[in-house]
């Protein structure tokens, strides 16, 4: 471990760890913890929502929620859920905001061991948690974050899209339905949400696409249901955001099951 990162004492407690299968659509209401928390869907899809928006984590991502953040969870597909808490004194090593990280093979195996097995030797879990923390310190955030607006005009538009992600309307058409101008809305997407209208809607559609693919819908049908005009444009968008093609994503899901 690099010298500038504090080592994890062997005596550290690793609380509230465990694993379990949750059914499709299972929802855990808003709550918070005095400790940090990793949640990993070894199979299935996890959505974590805070006042800052929603983060979605398929089986190649791990969610991080810092201490004190009120958050809720929803699970899509039958989900192999792994929960691992981080003592408050170690949370300063990670982001102060909810995040989603790519899962390397080493990180995946460490999380599975920590949530599956009883401790074989004193301090073993603490040493393995140090590996997890060290891996994440060198892992770029791969966030499927969908921010939510505070401005009433912008919220009226995003509410329309939440109700029907496949809606093909332009921003101007949505603005007329919501009573706001296109230029104003375009500016608000950038200044309040930090992304363009197109990027926000694409991310929303990817969130829904992950749920459909996890539930076994074909790539072509998922593209149509989520609003893409053809499968190839869906595959390109999905690959850019998720980091793998939807077909490969489904194949890995089948392998894990």
TrEMBL record:
Keywords: DNA-binding, Repressor, Transcription, Transcription regulation. The keyword Protein biosynthesis does not apply. One of its GO terms (molecular function) is sequence-specific DNA binding. It comes from the Bacteria. CDD domains: cupin_NimR-like_N (cd06124). Residues 155-252 form the HTH araC/xylS-type domain. PANTHER family: HTH-TYPE TRANSCRIPTIONAL REGULATOR NIMR. This is HTH-type transcriptional regulator RipA. It comes from Streptomyces seoulensis.
């Amino acid at each position: 471990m690099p010298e500038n990162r504090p080592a994890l004492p062997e005596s550290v407690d690793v609380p509230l760890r465990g694993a379990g299968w949750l059914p499709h659509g299972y929802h855990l209401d808003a709550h918070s913890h005095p400790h940090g928390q990793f949640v990993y869907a070894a199979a299935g899809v996890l959505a974590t929502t805070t006042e800052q928006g929603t983060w979605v984590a398929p089986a190649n991502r791990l969610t991080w929620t810092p201490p004190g953040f009120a958050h809720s969870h929803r699970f899509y597909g039958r989900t192999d859920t792994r929960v691992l808490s981080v003592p408050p004194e170690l949370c300063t090593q990670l982001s102060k905001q909810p995040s989603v990280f790519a899962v390397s093979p080493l990180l995946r195996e460490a999380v599975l061991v920590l949530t599956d097995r009883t401790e074989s030797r004193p301090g073993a879990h603490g040493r393995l948690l140090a590996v997890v923390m060290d891996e994440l310190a060198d892992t770029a955030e791969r966030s499927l974050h969908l921010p939510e607006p505070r401005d009433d005009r912008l919220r009226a538009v995003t509410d329309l899209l939440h109700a029907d992600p496949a809606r093909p309307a332009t921003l101007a058409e949505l603005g007329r339905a919501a009573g706001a101008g296109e230029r104003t809305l375009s500016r608000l997407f950038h200044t309040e949400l930090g992304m363009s209208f197109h990027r926000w809607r694409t991310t929303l559609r990817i969130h829904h696409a992950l749920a459909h693919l996890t539930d076994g819908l074909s790539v072509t049908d998922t593209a149509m249901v989520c609003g893409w005009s053809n499968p190839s444009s869906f595959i390109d968008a999905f690959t850019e955001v998720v980091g793998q093609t939807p077909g490969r994503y489904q194949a890995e899901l089948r392998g894990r099951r």
